[in-house]
Write a structure and sequence with these properties.
The radius of gyration is 20 Å and the shape is globular. The protein folds into 2 domains: 10-181, Regulatory protein AraC (Jelly Rolls); 193-303, Arc Repressor Mutant, subunit A (Orthogonal Bundle). It is built from 14 helices and 10 strands. 52% of the residues lie in helices and 18% in strands. The protein is an alpha+beta fold. Residues 199-297 form the HTH araC/xylS-type domain. GO terms for molecular function: DNA-binding transcription factor activity; sequence-specific DNA binding.
């Protein structure tokens, strides 16, 4: 039985959500151990972000888009919003540096975005997102990630964002240089038809889910019938197209209720519900409580942690 997919914004991850630094809700760089890997990434998760995972020690396995990879120290994982992933069977000494760069932050990256796009390496790294590194290269990237992490917390700096971007730019340059020198796993340069459809569907969804809630829209964009798209997504992921759409909406609704000052009515409009009542019914079906009560609970928790 395929496990349920969790769709989240990076600010909803427990390892990030408790931070008082708002910048960490958009970009975060942390080190996790075996416990965090298995507690928070033990079932398929989709994050609308560019993700770098650098294994520092230990071993385990990761499942990315339903393909299993063994991982160990000096293994690099490069994931985009078109990847679903989870960890499993991590050893007690497992440690991994994690860089999460949200879509909201990459939209502000200016020239750094060019480096970000280069490091994705298109189909090759979509097909084979796990890259074994030389120890010296892994060490260099680990140093760059530590520098990014330190500067995220320099909130008193007059040029806080620019300093982070500068460190991020240096990381992407070194990453691109390493990838140019690394013999990447060979692929035939193309995805299977089903892989291509799933990749395109998830990328479309990440762009349009706030406004487009119907399967027909995504099917039409992919030149498929709604029935055919539904069959493919169900076969590959075990989830329906509607499951993906509604999980994206629910994730963004939680995010806006927790981290924005928009009224419930404004959130309903932002997410293209016909009115506040239909949004409220949708949210209560998913959360078990109303949007108003969810926001009250979220504010109470935030006040308790301050």
């Amino acid at each position: 039985m395929t496990s349920s997919i969790r769709i989240k914004n990076i600010c909803e991850l427990p390892i990030i959500s408790g931070s008082r630094n708002d910048t960490r809700k958009k970009i975060s760089c942390i080190t996790i151990g075996q416990r965090e890997a298995e507690e928070q990434f033990s079932s398929d998760i989709h994050l609308d972000a560019f993700i770098v995972l650098l294994v520092l020690s230990g071993k385990g396995h990761t499942v990315i888009n339903y393909k299993t990879y063994d991982i160990q120290a000096d293994t690099l994982l490069l994931l985009s919003s078109a990847h679903l992933f989870h960890f499993g069977e991590c050893s007690d000494d497992f440690q991994c540096q994690c860089l999460f760069v949200s879509k909201a932050f990459t939209d502000e990256m200016d020239s750094t975005d060019m480096i970000y796009r280069r490091t994705k390496y298109g189909v090759r790294l979509y097909n084979e997102p796990v890259v074994p590194l030389e120890h010296s290269h892994a060490g260099l990237l680990a140093e760059r990630l530590i520098s990014i992490n330190k500067n995220i917390d320099r909130t008193e700096h007059f040029y806080h964002k620019e300093v982070i971007l500068n460190r991020l730019f240096a990381f992407y340059l070194d990453l691109s240089d390493i990838l140019e020198r690394t013999n990447l796993p060979h692929t035939n340069g193309c995805l299977t038809r089903y892989e291509s459809i799933i990749k395109s569907f998830i990328e479309l969804l990440a762009t349009h889910y706030r406004k487009e809630h119907k399967v027909d829209f995504y099917a039409a964009q992919l030149n498929l019938s709604a029935h055919h798209l539904t069959q493919i997504v169900k076969l590959v992921t075990g989830q329906s197209v509607s499951d993906f759409i509604f999980e994206m909406l629910f994730s963004e609704a939680r995010n806006l209720l927790t981290h924005s000052k928009l009224s419930v009515q404004e959130i309903a409009a932002t997410l293209n519900f016909s009115d506040q009542s239909s949004f409220g019914k949708f949210f209560k079906r998913k959360a078990g409580i109303s949007p108003v009560d969810f926001r009250k609970d979220a504010l109470f928790v935030e006040e308790r942690t301050e």
